[in-house]
């Protein structure tokens, strides 16, 4: 599957689910990772609610890889926060963007769940 097709297909499904995304990036290579930048915590919550709410009582492999630091490193999901500001009219506007990264091996299940949610 081509890099752009992966990003576009997931981006379209997330847009259909009303999840706002700032940026997508896919690392090259078969063991690559997909990075998604969200404009804030509420959008990450919506993304996670779609992916994990049905499985929260009975964890599956995707849920465990997203939250289990003991999973093999190449299967773990990662998170980071970017804080920026812009000066305007004697005040500062702060922006908080959250990044979620997941392994390419999780992509088929992430896409399947997004499509299922949107159907």
Structural features, described:
The structure is a single chain. With 119 residues, the protein is an alpha+beta fold. The protein has one domain (3-118). Helix content is 38%, strand content 29%. The protein contains 4 helices and 4 strands; from the N terminus they run H-E-E-H-H-E-E-H. The protein has helices spanning 3-16, 41-52, 61-67, 107-118, and strands spanning 23-26, 33-38, 78-88, 91-103. It has a 4-stranded antiparallel sheet, covered by helices on one side. A hairpin with a 2-residue loop joins strand 3 (78-88) and strand 4. The protein is globular and about 50 Å long.
Q: Compute the number of helices.
A: 4
* Spans of at least 5 consecutive residues with low confidence: none
The termini sit apart by 23 Å
| Share in β-strands | 25-35%
Number of domains: 1
Label the overall shape.
Answer: globular
Mean pLDDT: 83
Q: How many β strands by DSSP?
A: 4
What topology, given as strand order, has the largest sheet?
1-2-4-3
Q: Compute the CA-based radius of gyration.
A: 15 Å
Profile the largest sheet: 4 strands, antiparallel
Helix-strand category: alpha+beta
SSE ordering? HEEHHEEH
Helix content: 25-40%
